[in-house]
Amino acid sequence: MKKACFLLLLTWGISITAFSQEFLWKTDVYSFFDNTEFSGSEVQNDQTMAGIHLAPQIGLNWNKRHRIFAGVDLLHDFASDEAIDEYKPIVYYEFQGKMLQFYMGAVPRKNLLDKYPRMFFQDSITNYRPTINGFFWELNKNKHYANVWLDWTGKQSKDTNEAFFMGWSGRYNYKLLYAQHFGYMFHYALKKDADINESVHDNGLVLTSIGLDFSKLTGFEQLEINAGWSVGLDRDRNIGEWNTPQGFLSETKIEYKGIGLFNTLYLGESQQIFHKDHSSKLYWGDSFYRLKKYNRTDFDIHFIKSQVVNIKFTCSLHFAESKVYGQQIFNVSFNLNNLPKQQQKKYEYLWDDWF
Question: CB 3.0–4.6 Å: which of 33, 61, 139, 309 could bond 330 by disulfide?
């Protein structure tokens, strides 16, 4: 009887403590349309990807720094007969300090790894891999930042190879000048079946660049250019030796009142050495970097850009294989929540006075 009373009081106490904290909720809607016109390419697929994500979450906040969220990311592919084509659980702990952010669990990918160039993660990763399963830790102050993260992407079974990413990145700003670094190591191991003859792969990639950011001196949202050197680290453990393809990568970013331009140029050795054997299972970066010369130019229109609604259209030109390929991307996101809102400068558009 005493034990029962004690358990009842303990349960009641935990419930009162939990529900006395601040209740949080989020609802994210993300719709994408990505049409690639890569017909005739030897390194890319010609396809159209389109769908919509709904990601409701509820959570608790205590001491203004600690949060727990639980929810689900639901994907419906356009033209599919299924109401839900894929679902991913969202369950994570979040710490928000003055300079320190920490997440652990099944965490939404959005805003965590967005800074990585497409050489590391291609456009469609966000569409079909909406969460990272592991942790993300970052120190940031005055736009300086440094982070490390883990994303466990494959649980070993008879059908699935054990696989995970370990990554790190950072940026340091000094007046107009900045230096940035991106890196990861992807470990692609074996299935749980001794009869399958496979090899363990280690796939790493690092990029260090220096740039100039003129946006603070102008009315531009973005006005910067950077240039750097990338090194791939590829190994098939059955063979033993490391492959280290290297190359030059330059980025130009311009955004002014709703109109943007983003240009990427790569010149160097072919990345993704073992792509023919393992394809996208081993490499999550854009396959165009298997070429020695590649340039991509994005022309963007931000129809709406805010903390709640974002509508963006991108027309891309890919200069590769002595050809020009086209791509059209249309993204719409809608984010509602009861989280504390950060003050943001009102975004201005060229067409503000037209309506």
Answer: 33
